Amino acid sequence: MNERNSRVARALSEAGIEPAIRILDADAKTAVAAAEHLGCEVGAIANSLVFDCDGTPLLVMASGAHRVDTGLLARTLGADAIGKANPRMVRDATDQVIGGVAPVGHPRRLRTVVDESLAQYEVIWTAAGTADSVMPLTYDQLLSVTEGVAVQVR
Predict the structure, then answer these.
(1) What is the pTM of this model?
(2) How many domains does the chain have?
(3) How far is it, in rounded angstroms, from Cα 119 to Cα 138?
């Protein structure tokens, strides 16, 4: 494991969750690629997407089977505008690269929303800080460790 994976593992441990980070033999930058590696449904992959929400980063944990409706999300959160964050905002907010952003292990806690549709899966897979690492969490663990709010994202 590298330093990013170690920060993620520490954050999980501090939240009372036993880290189970797996390093894959290839990058899994997309939900489809991760699902193929893990042998699970694409919907059980929780994409960690950073958006620009009125000038501040917003972490959206979205099912790999869905696209985020930023208009709906803005209305739900009472935001003026939510759009794709540029790579610099993602890096500054998470200290992780696009395609490997974990729900935790960031320099500071990010405002987070979690796709309600992920609740249907017994195990959810998220990135673990790098494009070639993943980790399993339950929906309740994901909400807890991120201090996220469950919302409809599509």
Answers:
(1) 0.93
(2) 1
(3) 8
